[in-house]
Amino acid sequence: MSKVIISTLYDSDVFKMACRQFDKAADAINLPENLRDRTKYPKRCLAVALPIRRDDGSISVFEGYRVQHNLSTGPSKGGIRYHQNVTIGEVAALAMWMSWKCSLVGLPYGGAKGGVVVDPRELSDGELERLSRRYMQEMVNFLGPHVDVPAPDVGTNERVMAWMMDTYSNHVGHIEPSIVTGKPISVGGSQGRREATGAGVAYLATRYLEDLGLSPASSTVAVQGFGNVGSEAALAFENYGVKVIALSDYTGGVYNPNGINVRKAVAYVRSQKVLRDLPDAEPITNEQLLELPCTVLAPCALERVITEANASKLRCRVLAEGANGPTTNSADRIIDERGDIELIPDVLCNSGGVVVSYFEWIQNLQNYYWDRDEVMKKLYAILDKARESVEYQKRKLKFSRRLAALTLGIQRVADAKAARGLFP
Ligand SMILES: NC(=O)C1=CN([C@@H]2O[C@H](COP(=O)(O)OP(=O)(O)OC[C@H]3O[C@@H](n4cnc5c(N)ncnc54)[C@H](O)[C@@H]3O)[C@@H](O)[C@H]2O)C=CC1
Ligand SMILES: O=C(O)CCC(=O)C(=O)O
């Protein structure tokens, strides 16, 4: 990777954060110097201009990225984010985390991520469709079912994946559902993919509650972010009997110490678009939500929300990282020193999404589809196994849980690179 590109990536605090995590993990496992840079830095960074016609007839040009961090362990895998603050450095950090995540849970994938600098709420449906199709059109030569397989992330969803799949299929001349995952069921999506990330977050969090001797019925949860991951996590917590006391989105939070009815909140957001003014709850800020007394805190929105400023003020027993990168390096240190919070690191905690994406990809390649029970059973088995391996590494090497998870993920990628020789 060129030094110019790397220095651009380092403009991003999120990229710096992912690199610090890598350096710490590489030191902890004495990763040989000659493997470090090629394991750490992305293999390919692609930036494209995306011109689209607006509804008023004018043309707008958006900037799009795809970063393929690691291609040594399989086709690269990872979502595409539409957000006004996306940078190529952020996308590279998210791609790096995808590499460690896929490797940790044992998927035959490398890591990638994509992004477009756009606030999707400011586009009409037609503009959004044209932008999504243009993104795929520009990326056609860099993606493929055995090269790089995108999925949804912040600001994208099943509908966007369907448009992208359609554009790719038109290009190759036949339907190719395995080009993206997270599609609607009607075009080859998997049962369970929509719920998978949030369901996995709640599943793992309840396993850690069990370890602490806490029952779901005696526990409470505060969830930041009410999109795909946050809403599905909140629903799953509610199903386990955990009382959901706070929710939030980009407009702020809502709080009820007696419990919020999550199903009603989902219906409210479907009609109102935002959580603001949800009945039977009082308004709070996103910052207040993070500091509420609760058994589980689940940040499920954006990066770097738990910082040096609030880490000592958290009042949860379990910190379940539904989002990627919600905890800064200094906050991590503070949480470690406190020792009273079980932190479930992102690469483990939110891995349910990519696990079911893997199932979707396999089903597409085989053209043979599984029922929901089979999907969920296989998902929980993989999460249990990954959790056990993290706990074993944590105990054996006296690492924090994040360091245990990252070292497992990084070691497997580095081993594959070493095994393939010097120039894979
Ligand atoms: N969708 C997926 O399958 C997976 C997503 N993730 C991660 O989970 C997180 C959320 O992703 P999705 O739920 O897919 O996105 P989404 O776009 O469906 O939802 C994002 C939610 O966060 C809220 N939000 C945005 N800015 C916020 C802010 N400043 N403060 C509080 N809330 C804010 C939005 O209002 C929305 O409710 C991201 O970190 C993503 O990378 C991780 C694994 C898989
Ligand atoms: O489902 C996938 O392929 C990727 C999901 C994702 O972007 C993530 O785990 O952060």
UniProtKB/TrEMBL annotation:
> Which PROSITE patterns does the record match to this protein?
GLFV_DEHYDROGENASE (PS00074)
* Domain spans labelled Glutamate/phenylalanine/leucine/valine/L-tryptophan dehydrogenase C-terminal: 190-421
The protein's superkingdom reads Bacteria
- Amino-acid positions noted as binding NAD(+) in the UniProt annotation, renumbered to this chain: 197, 228
Asked if the keyword Nucleotide-binding belongs to this entry, the reply reads yes
Q: Which GO terms describe its molecular function?
A: glutamate dehydrogenase (NAD+) activity; nucleotide binding
Q: What are the UniProt keywords, alphabetically?
A: NAD, Nucleotide-binding, Oxidoreductase
Q: Which residues bind substrate?
A: 77, 101, 357
Mark the transmembrane ranges.
none
| The keyword ATP-binding is assigned to this record | no
Q: Name one GO biological process term.
A: L-glutamate catabolic process
Site residues (Important for catalysis), renumbered to this chain? 153
Active site, per annotation: 113
Q: Which family does it belong to?
A: Belongs to the Glu/Leu/Phe/Val dehydrogenases family.
For this entry, the protein name equals Glutamate dehydrogenase
**According to the entry, what is the taxonomic lineage of the organism?**
Bacteria, Pseudomonadati, Verrucomicrobiota, Opitutia, Opitutales
